[in-house]
Each structure stands twice: as C-alpha cells, then as structure tokens.
Fold:
Amino acid sequence: MQLRRFYFIFPLLLVTVSSFPTETVSSNKVSSEKDDVKKKEHEKFSIESWESPEDIAKNFPYYLSGYDSEDRAIVVLELGKWDVRSQAKKGGQGWIDLQRHAEKMIYNLKNSADKKNYTDVVGNVTASGPDDIVLIVDWDGFQLVQLFSPEAIAFVLKYMGKMERFQEKIAYGLFINVNPVANAAVTSMRPILGRFMERVDVYGTQTAQWIPVVRRRLPADQLPAKYGGSKDHKPLIYRG
Structure:
C-alpha cells in the first residue's frame, strides 16, 4: 500500500519541487544557520580543489573501481547508501558538505578525472586513455523515506539532472539492485535524466540477472566480489 501511494505521490512531489528555485529549496535550512561571512566564503568555494570530509565520504560512497578491457574508467556509485533526507534534516555544515560532495562527483565525471594515464619507464605521462566511463549505480538499501523531504527531492533533481548534461561521456551504465521503490523513483525521473537513460540498463535485486552481464562486460579483477569480481579487490580511488 505504501509503495502504491508512492507511485502517485512522488511524481507530484517532483513537479512541485522542480517548480521552485533549486537553491532556495535545497539550502533553506543551511541559509538560516549561516551568517554573512560564511555565505561569502561559500561563494568563493572552488570545487576543483575541494576534498570530501571523511564522514561524508564514508556515508555517501562512490569510487573508481578499475578499468575495463578498453581502459575506460569503471565508476561505482552506491546510491542506495546515500541517506540524503537525514543529512538535510541535520542541516549545518554537513548538509553543505554533502552538496559539495555531489558537486565534486559531477565535476569528476564530467571532466573524466579518472581516465587512465599511460607512462614511460620513468613515470612520465605519455598518453591518456578514453574520456568515456562505465557507470555502475547500486541502489541496494534504497528506501522510500530517503526522499520524503523537499530538500532531498531537490537534491536528487539537481544532481541526477546534471548527469544528462554529459551523457556522451557515459559509454554505458548499469543500474543494479533496483528495488520497487528505486524503480518507481527511476521511472518518475526519466524525463529529467533524458538521454542519459538511453545508455543505461536497469536490473532488479536478483543477482542472477545482472552479475552474468557484469562479468561478460567487465574484468573480474576490476570489480568488488559483490558485483561478481575478486574478493581481494580494492577501489583504485575511493572518493566517497
């Protein structure tokens, strides 16, 4: 019953929130807690040099898992663990840091920050690998409550929407562990994601459906065991 209500309510929430200025909705609580000096510091903020705080990186994970057979970066976003609602409710610097964390992720994806570099015997970069990436979005653990706040919905609209702007950088994507709630959210957001979704295959929570696909497409030693990879695998760069 709760899920059935969500199918009706969530699209309405998307329309309602998207009609508001994103900055106003997503930073309401933050703005009320910051003085003029901090606002000026925020305006001078540079995403290129910013690094995620340890607690944000731990609770909102994404990472460079490895490279495929064509040397394209394999980026994993464990979106099901991103409890945006709770972080928005806390407000303060943690909420600001989460938004910056998401902005940095978009920046890295858009600018191919993880593309492979080829070096000579002394370590000088002689060439670079492909700009495009393979994106795995893991929805495992995604719950209805994660989106039941205006701030959280505005957050999802803003940053998922930005992925459509550089969809040409996505060689292909895999949405895995998409439970019924996640599927309802993805379906509702398809107009926002636009052409990005043309490059994405969506799979449910049955690993027997998607692990064979992952194994066919990607080298096992470049993936964690839970995705059909190696039990000894470690991310090359853990960004979140």
Remarks:
- The chain has one domain: 2-118+128-238.
- The chain has ten helices and eight strands.
- The radius of gyration is 19 Å.
- Residues 15-27 have pLDDT under 50 and may be disordered.
